[in-house]
Design goal:
This protein is of the alpha/beta class. The chain is built from 7 helices and 9 strands, in the order βαβββαββαβαβαβαα. The chain has a 5-stranded mixed β-barrel, surrounded by 4 helices. β3 (about 50-55) and β4 form a beta hairpin. It is globular and about 50 Å long. It holds the Pfam family PNP_UDP_1.
């Protein structure tokens, strides 16, 4: 049955879902990857497309911005549509000198300042980590891109607030090996673990907290996702668990 936020019928959502944040980016990805893409839902203007890539079914839709928005869609995809894996293909802000605008980060884990995961296991601080088979598939795909394409495998931090990143916190996160800040991965990883499914976030660095001179424009954010998309698709269609 359709959910309050997804109007697709049973069988119209693929087992693998690519989940960018921006609805326009979702449409661009769907039409680029799937000539047979069918619009199966557009509740609240959020289009959901399903088709095939190299004979394998795929669904593409947007999560919106932030963990609460992504949490609604991820829960419904896993619990109502029997989705097996979700790969976030999005953007992030660099917070370490080790990354530059345009680089890709495969998010091995996600620290967070959000309270969304605090009540999952009483007395335990939940560790939001990616599904290893998807990480391995993305890394293998990255090796195929060649050494000239900067791809990093490292933790990110998922924040509730887009603005107001404290300088001392940024420095400490970078000192602890965190490369980027975004707003969704920690919730995605926790929801996947809750449902016994798989998840990964692959993010393009679209701006940098230490140096804003090379930041992407809004149009560039929408268009410069090809390398992350290649890795995300490889993870989404890697051998089943």
């Amino acid at each position: 049955m359709p959910t309050p936020h997804i109007a697709a019928q049973p069988g119209e959502i693929a087992p693998a879902v690519l989940l960018p944040g921006d609805p326009r980016r979702a449409e661009r990805i769907a039409t680029q990857l799937m000539p047979d893409a069918r619009l199966v839902s557009e509740v609240r203007g959020n289009g959901v497309w399903t088709g095939e890539v190299d004979g394998k079914p795929l669904t593409v839709m947007a999560s919106g911005m932030g963990m609460p928005s992504l949490g609604i869609y991820a829960n419904e995809l896993f619990s109502h549509y029997d989705v097996r894996r979700i790969v976030r293909v999005g953007t992030a802000g660099g917070l370490s000198p080790a990354v530059s605008v345009g680089d890709v980060v495969v998010a091995l884990g996600a620290h967070t300042d959000s309270a969304m995961n605090d009540r999952r296991i009483p007395g335990i601080r939940f560790s939001a980590v990616a599904s290893y088979p998807l990480v391995a598939a993305a890394v293998a795909a990255a090796e195929g891109l060649g050494p000239e394409v900067p791809v990093h495998v490292a933790p990110v931090v998922s924040r509730d607030h887009f603005y107001g990143n404290p300088a001392d916190q940024i420095r400490l996160l970078a000192d602890y090996g965190t490369l980027a800040v975004e707003m969704e991965a920690a919730a995605l990883y926790a929801i996947a673990a809750e449902h016994g499914r798989q998840a990964l976030a692959v993010c393009t660095i679209s701006d940098h907290l230490l140096d804003s001179t090379g930041d992407f424009s809004a149009a560039e954010r929408e268009q410069n996702f090809q390398r992350a998309l290649t890795l995300g698709l490889a993870a989404a269609h890697s051998p089943s668990e």
